[in-house]
Amino acid sequence: MEKELSYGSDYKFIPATSIGSGVGISVSPDIYCYTIQIVNIIFVGDPNTNEFVLVDAGMPHSSDEIIRVTEERYGAGAAPKAIILTHGHFDHVGAIVELVQNWEVPVYAHELEIPFLTDKKSYPEPDPTVEGGLVAKMSPLFPTQPINLGNHVAALPADGSIPDMPGFRWIHTPGHSVGHVSFFRDSDRMLIAGDAFITVRQDALFKVMTQEQELNGPPRYLTTDWQEAWNSVRKLEALKPAAAVTGHGLPMSGEALSNGLSRLTKEFDKLAIPDYGKYVDGQLPKPAKIKKGEKQ
Ligand SMILES: [Zn+2]
Ligand SMILES: [Zn+2]
């Protein structure tokens, strides 16, 4: 059965890092954010129990580190009940094949993200021409080919609940990818936003390295529908989150978050949408008629 699990043919180590790499931060007693190079993985669940899930699965070749961090927090041999994905970009599923093989746990993602996780569709190519810094320029290196999790991946339940993540609900926040989701807990207004918005300028290498906090729209080089991305930020802002853990950058809370989110919502066109790029209206012809994820 495990033979069917595989990465895409362009799977590779990506040499990018930040000063946050290898650092973990407790956002609340049961939410722990840990940075793998330039991306966050999030543990949700009381560390005194074995009831927890892992949100997202890190960078390529990081499974040993993820297993070590899991056991440091939850005890030797501990495994999450499930892996829940915000979306399937390479930096959020980089270690997932080894993790699923090791832990034998199910993976859940939005139904529109499943084709990218079952070898059916490639993601659109990242845009190195987009307005932005060095990370955007190196983005052609990034894997876009579909991985194959076979029958280990299933769609999130239509009622908004999340298996093994009680108290949270998923919210469809497309734009950065078609099946992108964020997770919200109404009781304490905790938000796990994935890449719907992030707290670092992900396209600028220097800011990624230093992790300077700055609330931003989704990573530019991989975002293909900016109007949808704007709507998604509006949806999340309306929830008035008390704290947010994002796919990239440090967790944010309080006024920094509320002010940053309200400004981003109002001025998304200025702050987030790049001035030019192949997925932006205007400047260059938008390849909107190419179906998302189709091999080009
Ligand atoms: Zn992404
Ligand atoms: Zn990402």
Total strands: the figure is 12
Distance between the termini: 31 Å
CATH class assignment? Alpha Beta
Helix content: 10-25%
Can you describe what's shown?
By secondary structure, the protein is an alpha/beta fold. It has one domain: Ribonuclease Z/Hydroxyacylglutathione hydrolase-like (Metallo-beta-lactamase, Chain A, 4-Layer Sandwich), CATH 3.60.15.10. The protein is 20% helix and 17% strand. The chain contains seven helices and twelve strands. The chain has helices at residues 63-74, 96-103, 134-137, 205-210, 226-238, 254-266, 268-271, and strands at residues 24-28, 31-36, 39-44, 53-55, 83-84, 107-109, 153-155, 168-172, 181-185, 190-194, 243-246, 252-253. A seven-stranded mixed sheet has the order 1-2-3-4-5-6-7, covered by helices on one side. A five-stranded mixed sheet has the order 8-9-10-11-12. A hairpin with a 5-residue loop joins strand 11 and strand 12. Helix 5 (226-238) packs across helix 6 (254-266). It is globular, with a radius of gyration of 17 Å. The structure holds zinc ion (ZN) (2 copies).
What is this entry, summarized?
The chain is α/β, with parallel strands linked by helices and 296 residues long. The protein is 20% helix and 17% strand. The relative contact order is 0.15.
